Structures are given as structure tokens and as C-alpha cells.
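Q: Here's a chain of 116 amino acids. Please give me its 3D structure as C-alpha cells.
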Amino acid sequence: MTNVQPNRTVNRTVRRGRLFSEIHWSEEKKAQWRAEREAFYQRCKPIFDRLKPELIKTHYNWYMAVASDIGDYFIDKDDMVATKMCRQKHPNAIPFLFRINQLQGRAARYDCRKIW
């Protein structure tokens, strides 16, 4: 037989708010960060657009990590593997991750700064 204990209510303090309350970004800093991300995307996109038509036939729904400053790219079925391959060869480069499929816009692009 197993002992079944009755449900007990535990008094817990509910904490609501920011995880890092000491970090506050101004609207200008947020706008600057968004502009930098968009500029980074615009540097990587031509490399992806040049290769996409031929890769979509053989590597549909695979991932491509692009190191924009170098112009190098890495392809794999797994997004983390593609990013790791790029990081291993170019440790100081920040890769931008694209998904090779028919979608356009935000659904097909990933910023690797969120991953690492």
C-alpha cells in the first residue's frame, strides 16, 4: 500500500517583475539594438539569397549559418550543429541562421546571438 498525503497548501511568495531589475534599457538603446540587428541581417541576406535557389532543391528545411564578415556559410539539418560548425571555424564571428525553405521574412531567419 502507498501512503497518500493530503494536498497541503504552501505559503509561497509570488515574485513578479523583471529578472534582472538593475538592467533598464532606454528607448534609444532599444532602437539602436534593433537597427544593429537589422544591419547585421542585411549583410548576411545577400549570401543566403545567392545560394538559396540551388540549395532549396537538395537541402529543403535545413539550416544555414552565415558568418557575414567572412562570407563563409555552414549547412546542416540541425540548427545547433550548423551554428557550432561556424563557431568552431570562426570563433570570433557571430553567425546568422537562416532556414532554407519557401518562407520569407522573420519565419525563415534566426539571430544566433539569442542561441549563444
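Q: Can you summarize the key feature?
A: The helical segments are 27-58, 79-89.
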